[in-house]
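Reopening: structure tokens for the tryptophan complex, inputs below.
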Amino acid sequence: MTRVLSCIQPTGEVHLGNYLGALRTWVAGQHDKDVFHGIVDLHALTVTDQSGVLGDSTLKLAAMLFAVGLDPDVATVFVQSHVPEHSQLGWVMECTVSYGELSRMTQFKDKTSKLEGQFISAGLFTYPALQAGDILLYDTNEVPVGDDQRQHIEITRDIAIRFNHRFGDTFVIPEAVTPAAGARVMDLQDPTSKMSKSTVTESGCVMMLDDPSVIMKKFKRAVTDSDSEVRYDVAAKPGVSSLLDILAAATGRTPSDVAADYTQYGPLKNDTGEAVVALLEPIRQRYTDLIADRAELARLLQVGSERARAVASATLDRAYDAIGLLRA
Ligand code: TRP
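Re-run output (same inputs, fresh job):
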């Protein structure tokens, strides 16, 4: 069966855009392929210098992944640092990629240009090597990624090909695939930008754990436009269209179909808010139950990391043997 790996960094809280745009498609797709989902805490370490933050956000993210419906018996949900093979293969990857290749990574250049004069960890530079290790450890066939990550998959392929050439056929060559299309969810205060937690105005972003009253308030304040026609037209009416997109995604309909039900913005905002509350309420409930039961969460993550380790340790062994390291 095709093996698929998606990873997510435990930085910040999950919002409606993450859910409708990506997580929901993970849940829907979990039975079709052999899916592995890594919470990549070691990647987040490249930009973390505070004590006691990462573990907490890792646990919260895990609870959210299970709460939205990833089934631990079907999908392999694991924490990167629970699978030590990531660090081990990461070093091998660092020795298989060149300084020049890493220097050409546009994400590194973007990130460091914003950190001028500040501490820039070497990990930020070698990050693509760690990521290559993540991917190659699982004999991954497909990596669903957005455009910002394509270069990292490309370098992973280059590393795998180089390693196989140097040391003999060891790694499966992965492919970047376009993720199953989720809904388009824009910032409620700035409907031409994607919903994001780093938004200027907090009210533009609906968090998964927002209280129903907060959600309703955010939708009531959503930016629309000055005429009053409800019509799905992303270019001319981005605010209204974004509400229609969200309402459609929350109710399993199409935006133009939903548009036909409305003649005024008020009811559209209200119904979209209510549909989102109805969609998120059971998730919030499951999340609350799970986060209160640390033992159960730890058990679920252990199941995941054991399954992950079974694959990862075999791959690492294969790589060490191919290199010809003296085995203990
Ligand atoms: N670099 C990815 C991001 O920032 C996260 C990531 C780490 C990843 N390892 C991965 C994605 C392996 C896909 C496969 O979003």
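The chain has two domains: 3-182+294-323, 202-288. The domain at 202-288 is CATH 1.10.240.10 (Tyrosyl-Transfer RNA Synthetase). Marking as resolved unless the reporter disagrees.
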